[in-house]
Amino acid sequence: MKGFEKYNEDLKNNFLNPFFTEFQRNFVNIPISEEKSTLLIIDVNKSSLNTLSNYFSENYNIITASNGLDALKIAWKINPSLILTTFAIQGLNGFELCRQIKSDLKLCHIPLILFISKNTISQKIKGYEVGADSIIPKPFDINLLAAQVNRLIQNRILIKEKYLSQNYMIELEGNNESKEERFVKTVRKILKENIADPDFNVQKLAGKMNSSTTQLYRNMKEITGHSPVEFIRILRLQNAHILLNHKDISVTEACYQSGFNNVSYFIKCFKRMFGSTPANIVNSFANNEDNLTRPLVQNIKNSKYSFYKSVG
Length: 312
What we know:
Blueprint: H1 2-13, H2 21-27, E1 38-42, H3 46-56, E2 61-65, H4 68-78, E3 82-86, H5 94-102, E4 112-116, H6 121-129, E5 134-137, H7 142-164, H8 179-193, H9 202-208, H10 213-224, H11 228-246, H12 251-257, H13 263-274, H14 278-286, H15 296-310
Parallel strand pairs: 1-2, 1-3, 3-4, 4-5
Helix pairs in contact: 4-5, 7-10, 11-12, 11-14, 13-15
């Protein structure tokens, strides 16, 4: 909540900036619950905005806009859980807004529902070509819309769960790589290139990604379920696990080659994540034993929750 409070204060301080005017009217002082998903609803029709806002406000945080350029700025600032936009909006039309969001690595993971005024094949094709996740012609049944919103948000949760148990040191094969997967692949590539540098932190990662630390945090949490700090630590530990399993290497060497500069902290993190100490992994490798070298991903699945709660 502190981040949103600070952001609201920043907006108040910029109240005379005309670009932020609509954003301020619709966002400043609106309470944001971190326990709820956030919907960004864009429509020039105030009656439609009010209808949708009132309907969804019980279960979701609601942010509204009528201008596509303002909506794009809002999306950058708050990283909503889902965007609903009509075709006919000011600034950017719905198709162009969708195209920009879906071509931006920082926003492309956000599900987007596009309302179209004409139920024609050509409009539907254009909507899907610019990346809309769902296209709904007007007028629509609001219960059908609610089902679509819920489905898309639940799909995002499932994607997060997939990333929570993934071994990020292994390149996954696939012909149809999603934009989310390309984002994670880029982050992983940067981290692997700097894996042995103990000073490579979130700020440096954000710089390499041409992103602010706030935006990087929101994207990482939304796509993988991990914060950047957690993600960096996971990749370092996975790297150490692989080194200990496949090389004749000491615990201290694995620690430093994976970017840790404190051996005792490394051992603590390693045991919490994999259920075994690095020394046991080294011994099992030396003795050709299999009982302590369980599949890396399975170890992550078994320990992912306790790991984050227990390690500072």
